[in-house]
TrEMBL record:
Glycerol binds at R82, E83, Y134, D241, Q242. Keywords: ATP-binding, Glycerol metabolism, Kinase, Nucleotide-binding, Transferase. It comes from Janthinobacterium kumbetense. Key enzyme in the regulation of glycerol uptake and metabolism. Catalyzes the phosphorylation of glycerol to yield sn-glycerol 3-phosphate. This is Glycerol kinase.
Length: 497
């Protein structure tokens, strides 16, 4: 039997390749950063060729460095930064423009026009999404309307659109497809019928010929070109990174939730086999489809905060109060508290449940005694406070109280942040042994499809607690702090003009 599943994790700032063994443990990994392009304030782009070059580079490197033969890889799982929009020429395989990244806000005004035209309700009903520039649809429309000749070429059937999963799979195999979890992030996909929605395509003037075929998240979808690895390997798992992390955290039953602390923070809760509409401006999204049809599909509720680890990066690169992200914990714990300072990390507006693109980062309560340690502490606390708003919206929507929150992502290695998160949520926070849960989720989806793993029960049994953080804050202190946080949030809102 083949020995490994190879997961490709294409994130916002880096591409990773990880080989997983039967126990669901990482055997070897490789990672490469790639270029971020900021052409104007609020715009964020990637060169899709850089994305592919970095991903192919780590794919080859992990096999070379570990000495694992491609013939020992049972299948490939692909997981990716979501919503980021790639448009390429079917004949040459060349992108027609830079990819527009999920963080890009260039279409905020157009989205407001759609809201004014009363389109938000129909969009939420069909797609589960809050009408926002975050999703792919308005990014694709922008490319068609602004890249010279693109619309005419699209109408002649010469171009292909895809999220990053589609782009990577096209480069590896020539197939043009995506899975239900990624399709659900385009704002063009009906999450009830699991098909592209013709009304939304018409509303946004998007030719259907651009779109990839939609396949289940687990299932042999394509095979790699033989010249990529010397042998052809099945591509058998595909999922957006946050959905993959939810699967990798084995949140396989309704009511189970995880939070990933990367650049941003993404909390997702399994709500079962039916999409649950949110009354609190959270997103309803496809988690994964283990086969065709909605009875094989798990749905999730999602709340995102756009800034988490990025606040730590800012303290390192922007104001230079730390030299390395790992120093933030020692600095923050060098003071007993934040000295009354509150930090709302709304650098890119506020995500769920506020959806305020005009909010901005706010540091309030500065006194003569405020020092850099207080700023570090307030920043970590601010990352955690944002999740209180998201979790209370989620518990209200789902009608349940969470029994524990599973956590992962680069900033989840920060023990102070995790303890404060447990305290302020009043919910136990649990960090697993394997924290590469995004890649692991993609590996599980691929491995289930080719019989490398047999069942979801086997996967759930592999999940192991690394460390558990129990809430230890008195209720009155928590409420006092949350009240102060709410006041700070109000001051951060509606700031940018
Ligand atoms: N010890 C730490 N404490 C807090 N944040 C950290 C720590 N180490 C890394 N980070 C943050 O984690 C983020 C990287 O996590 P990762 O999961 O790789 O993110 P992404 O997938 O979004 O690129 C960075 O923003 C970094 O600032
Ligand atoms: O690349 P990440 O890990 O920051 O994830 C980005 C999300 O998929 C955006 O929706």
């Amino acid at each position: 039997m083949t020995k490994y599943i190879l997961a490709l994790d294409q994130g916002t700032t880096s591409s990773r390749a990880i080989l997983f063994d039967h126990a669901g443990r990482p055997h070897a990994s490789a990672q490469r950063e790639f270029r971020q392009i900021f052409p104007q304030p609020g715009w964020v782009e990637h060169d899709a060729n850089d994305i592919w070059a970095s991903q192919e580079g780590v794919l080859q490197q992990v096999l070379r460095d570990s000495g694992v033969a491609a013939s020992d890889v049972a299948a490939i799982g692909v997981t990716n930064q979501r919503e980021t929009t790639v448009l390429w020429d079917r004949a040459t395989g060349e992108p027609v423009a830079n990819a527009i990244v999920w963080q890009d806000r260039r279409n905020a005004a157009y989205c407001e026009q759609l809201v004014e035209q009363g389109k938000a309700d129909v969009i939420q009903r069909k797609t589960g999404l809050v009408l926002d520039a975050y999703f792919s649809a308005t990014k694709l429309k922008w490319l068609l309307d602004n890249v010279p000749g693109a619309r005419a070429r699209a109408e002649r059937g010469e171009l292909a659109f895809g999220t990053v999963d589609s782009w990577l799979i096209y480069k590896m195999s020539g197939a043009h497809l995506t899975d239900t979890s990624n399709a659900a992030r385009t704002m063009l996909f009906n999450i009830h019928t699991l098909q592209w929605d013709t009304d939304l395509l018409a509303l946004l003037d998007i030719p259907a010929s651009l779109l990839p075929d939609v396949v289940p998240s687990s299932g042999v979808a394509a095979h790699t070109h033989a010249n990529l690895l010397g042998v052809s390997v099945p591509i058998a798992g595909i999922a957006g990174d946050q959905q993959a992390a939810t699967f990798g955290q084995a949140c396989l039953k309704p009511g189970m939730a995880k939070n990933t602390y990367g650049t941003g923070c993404f909390m997702l809760m399994n709500v079962g086999k039916r999409p649950l509409p949110s009354k609190n401006r959270l997103l309803t999204t496809v988690g994964w489809s283990l086969g065709p049809g909605s009875d094989k599909t798990d749905y999730l509720l999602e709340g995102s905060a756009f800034i988490a680890g990025a606040a730590v990066q800012w303290m390192r690169d922007g104001i230079g109060i730390i030299r390395d992200s790992s120093e933030v914990e020692a600095l923050a714990t060098s003071v007993p508290d934040s000295g009354g300072l509150v930090f709302v990390p709304a650098f890119a507006g506020l995500g769920a449940p506020y959806w305020d693109p005009y909010a901005r980062g706010t540091l309030i309560g500065i006194t003569r005694g405020t020092g850099k340690a207080h700023i570090a502490r307030a920043a970590l606390e601010g990352v955690a406070y944002q999740n209180v708003d998201v979790l209370s919206a989620m518990q209200d929507d789902a009608g349940i109280a969470l029994s524990e929150l599973r956590v992962d992502g680069g900033a989840a290695r920060n023990d102070m942040l995790m303890q404060f998160q447990a305290d302020i949520l009043n919910v136990p926070v649990v960090r697993p042994v394997v924290t590469e849960t995004t890649a692991l989720g993609a590996a599980y989806l691929a491995g289930l499809a080719v019989g490398f793993w047999d069942s979801q029960e086997e996967i759930a049994a592999q999940w192991q607690v690394g460390r558990r953080f129990e809430p230890a804050m008195a209720a009155d202190e928590r409420l006092t702090r949350l009240h102060k946080w709410q006041r700070a949030v109000e001051r951060s809102r509606d700031w940018s003009e």
